[in-house]
Amino acid sequence: MVDTAADRSPGREPILVSACLLGLPTRYDGASKRSQTVLDWLAHEGLTPVPVCPEQLAGLPTPREQTRFASGDGHTVIAGSGEVRTISGRIMNDPFLHGARATLQIARLTGCRRALLKERSPSCGVHRIHRENAIVDGSGVTAALLIAAGLAVLSEADLPAPD
Ligand code: SF4
Predict the structure, then answer these.
(1) Residue 10's pLDDT is what?
(2) Ligand 1 center to residue 151 CA distance, Å?
(3) How far is it, in rounded angstroms, from Cα 81 to Cα 74?
(4) What is the reported pLDDT for 1?
(5) Ligand 1 atom having least distance to the Cα of 27
(6) How far, in Å, from the CA of 54 to the mean position of ligand 1?
(7) How many CB atoms lie within 10 A of CB 102?
(8) Contact, 117 vs 140, CB < 8 A?
(9) What residues are in contact with ligand 1 under a 6 Å CB criterion?
(10) How crowded is residue 5: how many other Cβ atoms within 10 Å of its Cβ?
(11) How many percent of the chain have pLDDT more than 70?
């Protein structure tokens, strides 16, 4: 039988966190977006971060070409419309959906019921995304799939400002 998170003794609550927010150099440009606010909040709340980068889980290289929505957002991509494209025009819906499903699988394996994701990313954006050359309301593909699966999904923009 497979040992799942639910079978193990209780510990600190695990939470999925965008790897780049934790300081891992997973972004398309090979950089990180380490956030002290995020690290402080996780420590304050007593949470155990489970780092995930949906685009790396999709098998994409780092660095990689920048990607943004050409139309729609993560919710519409999951529904079968909407389009994620690289700057040079390559359609990326399939790898982004693959990365989103892999991230959801990790959430289930680790017992995560919450996620803290990087705002404005085409995978991780929770409230805002890049569409063409604008920043608009919408969710990334992974955020949308986690929301649809019933996880509580926050971005770093939802955290209280540091004292
Ligand atoms: S896909 Fe998410 S975790 Fe990966 S670099 Fe982009 S924002 Fe960070």
Answers:
(1) 66
(2) 18
(3) 9
(4) 46
(5) 5
(6) 6
(7) 17
(8) yes
(9) 18-20, 26-27, 53-55, 118, 121, 123-124
(10) 14
(11) 93
3-state secondary structure string, 113-132?
CEEEECCECCCCCCCEEEEC
Q: What is the pLDDT of residues 54-92, one digit of tens each?
A: 999 999 999 999 999 999 999 999 999 999 999 999 999
- Alpha carbons 52 and 57: distance in angstroms, whole number: 8
Per-residue pLDDT reduced to its tens digit, 14-67: 999 999 999 999 999 999 999 999 999 999 999 999 999 999 999 999 999 999
Looking at ligand 1, which atom is closest to the CA of residue 56? 4
Query: What's CA 158's distance to the chain center, in Å?
Result: 14
111 sits in the region (left: phi over 0; alpha: psi -120 to 50; else beta) called: left
Residue with tokens 């949906």: 54
Q: Could you tell me if 145 and 101 are in contact, meaning their C-beta atoms sit under 8 angstroms apart?
A: yes
Residue 130 reports pLDDT greater than 80: yes
Domain boundaries, the chain: 14-19+33-155
What is the average pLDDT score of the chain?
A: 94
Tokens of 160: 């209280």
Looking at the chain, how many residues does it have? Answer: 163
